[in-house]
Design a protein that fits this description.
Layout (H helix, E strand, L loop, with lengths): L1 E7 L9 E5 L3 E8 L4 H15 L7 H19 L9 E2 L1 E9 L2 E9 L3 E6 L2 E4 L6 H7 L5 H5 L19 E7 L4 E5 L1 H4 L4 H10 L2 H14 L6 E7 L2
Antiparallel strand pairs: 1-11, 2-3, 3-4, 3-5, 5-6, 6-9, 7-8, 7-10, 10-11
Helix pairs in contact: 1-2, 6-7
């Protein structure tokens, strides 16, 4: 697999509350939230938990769900400290398993960071946004274009470390030339899916990751932005 990854503070934030992890076959993006840099702590805790998990020790989807739930509980435990109270993070975690020459994606997701699949040259979002605006789109009360510009699009309905969570899962076989994109909303808030697709079709994963960061910042860079791209050989 060819992999590209990049992150940026953006042009407005003075620190980066995103965290990400790239390994041989496990990939994750987290977008922390909470005052006084507590979001940065929550995202880092989640990534540290993911790094400590043995994904090969159980069925793939169980491994993904257990890793996310372990991160959720670890953040809740740390959030008992007064200066970290209320912190949380999104998490989008992809585990790509190779069996012989075949690849299979197992994905777990909480929050409004996203995962996409590029298949046959067409980009498709494979996660739902766990946000108020995301629910309005799914219910047919808001168009995708209206959601892109909605002032409350950042209000999430669930996050690791806060309350109870319901992990969204996705599983699919992968074929050569498929791409998986994981990203925080610092990208998707300012770069349309059609433009993301065009960049992926014109670059290798590393070049595409850097180009998407540059476009997000050229469009104002209002938030931290993190991108991971994985190309199936």
């Amino acid at each position: 697999m060819r992999v590209g990854a990049a992150t940026s503070n953006g042009l407005v934030r003075d620190h980066n509350e995103d965290a990400y992890w790239v390994s041989d076959n496990v990939f994750a993006v987290c977008d922390g939230m909470g005052g006084h840099q507590a979001g940065e702590v929550a995202a880092a805790i989640a990534v540290d938990v993911f790094k400590s998990c043995d994904f090969s020790a159980k069925p793939p989807m169980d491994a993904v769900m257990d890793a996310i739930m372990s991160a959720h509980r670890a953040i809740q435990a740390q959030a008992k400290a007064p200066h970290l109270r209320g912190m949380g993070t999104t998490a989008t975690l992809a585990y790509i398993v190779k069996d012989g020459t075949a690849y299979h994606l197992y994905l777990g997701h909480v929050g409004d960071s996203r995962a996409y699949m590029l298949h046959n040259g067409k980009l498709t979002q494979i996660t739902s946004d766990h946000s108020i605006v995301g629910e309005l789109v799914r219910n047919g009360n808001l168009s995708k274009d209206e959601a892109f510009h909605h002032p409350h699009r950042h209000v999430v309905t669930q996050a690791l470390g806060i309350g109870e969570i319901e992990i969204e899962t996705f599983s699919a076989p992968l074929v050569p030339t498929d791409w998986i994109l994981l990203c925080t909303d610092g990208l998707t808030d300012v770069v349309a899916d059609e433009q993301i697709e065009a960049v992926l079709l014109q670059h290798d994963p590393e070049g595409a990751a850097c180009e998407l960061i540059e476009i997000a910042n050229a469009n104002g860079g209002p938030d931290n932005v993190t991108v991971i791209l994985v190309e199936i050989p």
